[in-house]
Amino acid sequence: MTTYAELVQTVSRRIGDSANETFEEETVKDFIQDGLAEIGRVAPERFQEDIEPLADTLSYALRSADFADAVPEIEVYRVEVWDGSVTPQRAVKWLQPMSSHPAGLAYSNAGWVLWSGTLELPNRVVDFLIPDTHLIRVWGYSPYPPVSEDADVIPLSNELEQALILYCRTLAYDALLSDRALFTQWQVRSNNADMSPAGLMNVAQIAGEQWRKKAKAIYVIRETPG
User: Fold this and answer.
1) Kind and range of the H or E element at 93?
2) In the structure, what pLDDT confidence band is assigned to residue 106 with cuts at 50, 70 and 90?
3) Model pTM?
4) Residues 31, 171: contact at Cβ < 8 Å?
5) Which whole-number Å values give the CA distances from 211 to 38, 42, 90, 160, 201, in the listed order?
6) Tens digit of each residue's pLDDT (9 = 90 or more) over 73-97
7) In sequence order, which ranges of 43-142 are alpha helices (DSSP H)?
8) Can you tell me whether residue 126 is helix, strand or coil?
């Protein structure tokens, strides 16, 4: 598993700036954070979350432990009620999404809905739930949790990590192309003296094509609510 600090070193090396003479570590970390967000859009994390229901409660924030300071762009495709008091646990009820109703007939008590990262349940479901017995089990897609500490593990598979590195390269090359002074600094200090502006444009174009090809390869087709 790759840590945040290790990935910073890898990205710095792959953009020809191993000593961070042109791009400071904080800038490389910005590239990585942008890359995590982009990977989460193309190939989001699949998650399953069990929620312990509370009496007379209609709303439950999803993935709140991983996204304490922000509302994640979550997609939910299945919600069920399980009996957690037995072994093995047993599914007892499938919950219908509001989106399954014809347009114009859906209303708040028709089914569950996801709103701003919060699962909203209809009253008839809440009346059915038994606290300390039932679990609300949710399946869906989520962005990847942000990393902040050098020792944090990057929550990606090896393939997705390689895609993230490709995306970071495109960000770095775009930055060099848009700032001649930054390019000159990179060209001299990073031992890239043989790279001309035209050569960099070619390298940036190739990196962009590699990223677009990889993005198509890793793209996740989402299941629809139902």
Assistant:
1) strand 90-94
2) low
3) 0.88
4) yes
5) 11, 12, 43, 11, 15
6) 999 999 999 999 999 999 999 999 9
7) 123-128
8) helix
